[in-house]
Design brief:
about 450 residues, 17 helices, globular
């Protein structure tokens, strides 16, 4: 059955924005400020992160244009490397995304519970109930079909953009008046060298790259986009343009309103900006807006991740049942249901999320570098395609090389900062590769006995 082409340029652009802007930008600037130590390095890290993301966006735009299929982020690994690599990396992504959905929905539930529940009911059990209910509601919305869930996503993403723009407006309501001159301190106490600045920038880019990550998942929708060869690249570029603009502006607002030294240790930084605008009611307004932002993140992951699982089912890396769709709405029913169940189950293990995600960030960085490198293979194998019907980036191969080098730099920075997380991440990856070959062996045995 041919796939229905339902996603427009606006739909995909909004999906890009929601895949990237989660809760990270409301807390990672604290980590970046702490590692940067001085505002010049802080803003440089976000500028470099934005430029690297733009290089990546243009690279993935061409990948998506040359290879527009459902579950594209899985299939580029399968085609350009080996199905076992594709299976391992995408399993890690799916599991960590399910954990992220659970964790982020809990954060949203915590904000909302303080607004709608009396103090004696603001317990962990009630927060889990609110978070679980949110996930189930959007599971049901996704069962209505891609058109309904994408329209819902458009509304939630517009609310999210309005929220960030509103918070940026805090710069017009007041700014930090105390003048503390930030100083870059070295471990030896001596004057910093270029090496010290470089190491600090690498540590900053770990959090920055986490905040910018996610847009590459847009290529999972290649088989369902209208005029995919032109719409996918344009949506990635438009979406990332919006994100870079919002990120730079809100970080400027954080520094101006909170103060750079205070930002290094601040908590609830978005609430501080909301308080500047709305006064005492700021926390209530922000809580509701953040809950809507969370809903957008939950929905976009219920849209994206089942498509990677569907692609794995198509290639028999997962059981064929994962390719099952409903007749009425063309919904990937099994993949969607399994991902939802994983997210709900992990709600009860939320305290371990940070540890799990520390392991997977290392592999995500490697995955980004290798998936972007697929462009070199696709340029050769799809050289016959009509240049007028596909997107071809300018400054090739410079842009993908910059992107790959930046993510390898982040990978090295993670390893030097937390060797245990990197080692455990590689062990998890190796474990999934072993599972792939065991599954393949069992499938072969089953086929021989049939």
């Amino acid at each position: 059955m041919p796939e229905k082409k339902q996603l427009s340029l606006f739909d995909l652009s909004m999906i890009v924005v929601s895949l990237v802007i989660g809760m990270g930008i409301f807390r990672t600037p604290v980590n970046v400020a702490s590692k940067a130590q001085i505002p010049e390095l802080f803003f440089l890290a976000w500028a470099v992160g934005g430029f690297v993301a733009l290089c990546g966006a243009l690279t993935y735009a061409e990948i998506g244009s040359r290879y527009p299929v459902t579950g594209g982020y899985y299939k580029i690994f399968s085609v350009c490397y080996h199905p076992s690599i594709a299976f391992a990396i995408n399993c890690i992504i799916v599991v960590s995304n399910a954990a992220s959905v659970a964790g982020v929905s809990l954060i949203g539930a915590e904000y909302l519970s303080k607004v709608i529940l009396p103090a004696d009911l603001q317990t962990a059990n009630y927060r889990i109930a609110i978070a679980g209910t949110s996930i189930i509601i959007f599971y049901l919305i996704n069962l209505l079909g891609l058109k309904t869930s994408s329209k819902t996503q458009n509304i939630l993403t517009v609310i999210k953009i309005v929220m960030v723009v509103t918070l940026i407006g805090a710069v017009f309501f007041g700014e930090q008046t105390t003048s503390i001159t930030p100083i870059f301190n070295t471990a030896t106490g001596e004057l910093p060298t270029w090496s010290d600045y470089g190491k600090a920038l690498g540590l900053c880019l770990i959090a920055v790259s986490f905040s910018f990550g996610g847009y590459q998942q847009t290529i999972n929708f290649g088989g369902e986009a209208k005029e995919a060869k032109s719409v996918i690249p344009r949506s990635i570029i438009i979406g990332l343009g919006i994100i870079i603009t919002l990120y730079m502006a809100i970080n400027y607002a954080y520094v101006k309103v909170i103060g750079f030294e205070q930002l290094k240790t601040a908590e609830s930084i978005a609430a501080i900006l909301a308080g500047q605008i709305f006064g005492p009611a700021g926390f209530t307004v922000l809580s509701v807006l953040i809950f809507f932002s969370v809903l957008g993140y939950v929905n976009v992951n219920l849209l994206s991740n089942p498509r990677a699982m569907y692609a794995m089912g198509e290639e028999k890396a997962l059981p064929a049942i994962f390719t099952k769709k409903t007749k009425k709405n063309d919904v990937m029913i099994v993949s969607l249901t399994v991902f939802t169940i994983i997210a709900i189950l992990t709600l009860f293990y939320a305290q371990t999320f940070d540890k799990i995600l520390n392991y997977t960030i290392f592999l995500d960085s490697i995955g980004m570098a290798f998936s972007a490198a697929a462009i070199f293979y696709l340029r050769k194998t799809t050289a016959h395609l009509d240049k007028s019907t596909i997107y071809t980036m300018k400054f090739y191969p410079l842009l993908p090389i910059i992107f790959i080098a930046a993510y390898l730099f982040v990978t090295v920075s993670i390893y030097s900062d937390d060797p245990a997380a990197a080692t455990n991440g590689l062990a998890i990856f190796a474990g999934f590769v072993v599972i792939y070959f065991i599954n393949k062996f069992l499938n072969r045995k089953k086929e021989q006995s049939a």
